[in-house]
Amino acid sequence: MVVNDATLDHRFAHNSLVLGDPHIVFYAGVPLTLPSGHAMGSLCIIDTKTRLFTLKEQEQLVTLASLAMVQIELHQSAGRVHEVTRLPNRAQMVQDMLGKQSGNADGGLLLIDVMGQQRLQAAVQAVGIGPLEDILREIARKLRVIVGDGWPLYHVAETRFCIPMRGEDHSDREEFARQVLAQ
After folding, report:
1. Sign of the C-alpha dihedral computed for residues 75, 96, 132 and 118 taken in this order
2. Three-state DSSP class for 29?
3. What is 55-108 written as a DSSP string?
């Protein structure tokens, strides 16, 4: 998508990012799409003045987006990110915990199992994998909001999430677990 002058484009002329800071005038972007078909964002170029974006520059932007996706896929293939939820996975959790060298020795792990294996298989047969992936993404999003940025959150199995808890006393960890599960 290329917008040479957002101030003249009916889709963007009244956007707060065009009217106010950062006063975007030019935009060129290409979606970053996972092999599963899900768009995870876009690679874009913005400017505060009008530009002409040549076909060659458009092709270069598409190439850059492809390179970015290759890097993301390499990171995934290294076994560190769950493809559906984009959360760090079990291998990354183990790496993080080993890197902290007993940094969680006096804490605990809160495991949240959304559904058992038999229910998962029955659900996949009933509605297919797509709706279940949507639900997992939504659960991951809600858990991220509940837990906040200061706490790690991992997707460690098909329907299981893990939150390593800090070294607060046992009653604090139990209260934290109750609050997360209640929400």
Report:
1. positive
2. strand
3. HHHHHHHHHHHHHHHHHHHHHHHTT-B-TTT-SBBHHHHHHHHHHHSSTTTTSE
CA triple 130-138-134, angle to 5 deg? 5
What would the two tokens of residue 16 be?
């707060």
Q: What is the pTM of this model?
A: 0.57
Which among 112, 109, 90, 111 is positioned nearest to 164, based on CA atoms?
Answer: 109
Kindly report, residue by residue over 70-125, the tens digit of the pLDDT: 888 777 667 788 888 989 988 888 888 877 654 545 678 889 999 988 898 899 89
Nearest to 111 by CA among 151, 79, 159: 159
Identify the DSSP state of 6: G
